[in-house]
Design brief:
Elements: E1 3-7, H1 12-23, E2 27-32, E3 47-50, H2 56-63, E4 68-71, H3 83-103, E5 108-112, H4 142-159, E6 164-169, E7 171-173, H5 182-191, E8 197-198, E9 202-207, H6 208-221, E10 227-230, E11 233-236, H7 237-248, E12 255-256, H8 259-276, H9 284-289, E13 293-294, H10 299-305, H11 312-325, H12 332-345
Parallel strand pairs: 1-2, 1-4, 2-3, 4-5, 5-6, 6-10, 7-9, 8-12, 9-13
Antiparallel strand pairs: 9-11
Length: 346
């Protein structure tokens, strides 16, 4: 039985990956930060390694004797008060983890990047792995910049002989989104009727379980130095909300907010947050990113890894069920009744 090491196991994608690895018979070690929320690991037979991405000793201990190392941990927020903290976690933390795994002799090091590191399409044509930014100044948002620079660092380490395979998940949706993430927040806000309107944009929705499967396939079959988009189905934001309406019986918002109005509101909201504290309801970077249809093509992962993502509707249905069952909706009984009514009409 092979051993593997997972960072970010308490988080969304990491929790899905940890469960998959256990189901496949791997011995799983996980990196646990002091004070982290461990609810996603309750009842799982994993070996904890106490430490953080700032602790090279813990990273070396976790990697020792492992066939595969999966670096999934990341600071994933659209708005940050202190960019330096995000750069430290996502760039320096990635470098330390890959170096430790390389020294430990891991056969494959799978780095979980993001489609944020891939230049989005200028039109509605899905982008693939060959779509590259011309430099960091082209990248919108601190988070996207951090993932772009972290991926460059990973490729630099590949050039030094380290066996890194990069995966680029799109917008994961599904169970174990404990925070929830910005993509999961769309579902939660819809269920709680906090989405009065929508912006004309698009995103690629992928089941969190499929992202986990893509990580394992990358470890087993991925080519060193290559990156693989782990996407699902390209949807307009309006189309996503209509699917949620079909699944839940709740009405989808009908009003489309013009981009200029959304931008002005977000700019004022961010200024308020910086002046008075708290977080913006509508981060400006999120609105700036929404100017592009963030559609992606997973053909390379399908062709080389045997990756087979489920339909977006299944991802959304599983996310709705998980959020309802775990208390993220204002009224679980009402939400369940709406969903059952919607299913009876289908």
């Amino acid at each position: 039985m092979d051993s593997v090491f997972v960072t970010g196991a308490t988080g969304f994608v990491g929790a899905n990956l940890t469960r998959l690895l256990l189901d496949k018979g791997y011995r799983v070690r996980v990196l646990l930060r002091p004070g982290s929320n461990r609810a996603n690991l309750d009842g799982l037979d994993v070996e904890p390694i106490q430490g953080s991405l700032e602790d090279p000793k813990a990273l070396s201990e976790g990697s020792r004797g492992c066939r595969y190392v999966f670096h999934v941990a990341a600071d994933y927020r659209i708005w940050v008060r202190d960019p330096a903290a995000m750069y430290e976690a996502n760039i320096s933390g990635t470098e330390r983890m890959i170096q430790a795994a390389g020294k430990a002799g891991a056969e494959r090091i799978v780095y979980c990047s993001s489609v944020s590191a891939i230049r989005p399409p200028s039109d509605h044509t899905p982008a693939d792995e060959d779509s590259r930014y011309g430099g960091v100044d082209e990248v919108v948002s601190v988070y996207k910049k951090s993932k772009y620079l972290a991926e460059l660092k990973a490729m630099e380490l590949v050039s030094k002989g380290l066996p890194v395979v990069i995966v680029n998940p799109a917008a994961p949706i599904g169970p174990y989104d404990i925070k929830p993430t910005p993509t999961g927040r769309i579902v939660v806000d819809f269920l709680n009727r906090r989405l009065p309107s929508y912006i004309d944009t698009g995103l690629n929705v992928v089941h969190s379980g499929d992202v986990a499967q893509g990580h394992l396939l990358a470890a087993q079959l991925g080519r060193v130095g290559e990156r693989y988009i782990l996407g699902g189905e390209n949807l307009s934001f309006k189309g996503l909300l209509e699917l949620l309406s079909e699944l839940t019986g709740l009405a989808a918002p009908r009003f489309k907010t013009p981009y200029a109005i959304a931008y002005a509101f977000a700019a004022l909201d961010c200024a308020r947050a910086r002046l008075l504290g708290g977080e913006p309801v509508a981060p400006l970077d999120a609105v700036r990113m929404a100017k592009h249809y963030m559609w992606y093509d997973s053909s390379k992962a399908c062709r080389e890894l045997g990756y087979r993502p489920r339909p977006a509707k299944q991802a959304l249905a599983d996310a709705v069920r998980w959020f309802e069952e775990n208390g993220y909706t204002a009224s679980r009984s009402e939400a369940r009744q709406n969903r059952e009514h919607a299913n009876s009409r289908a």
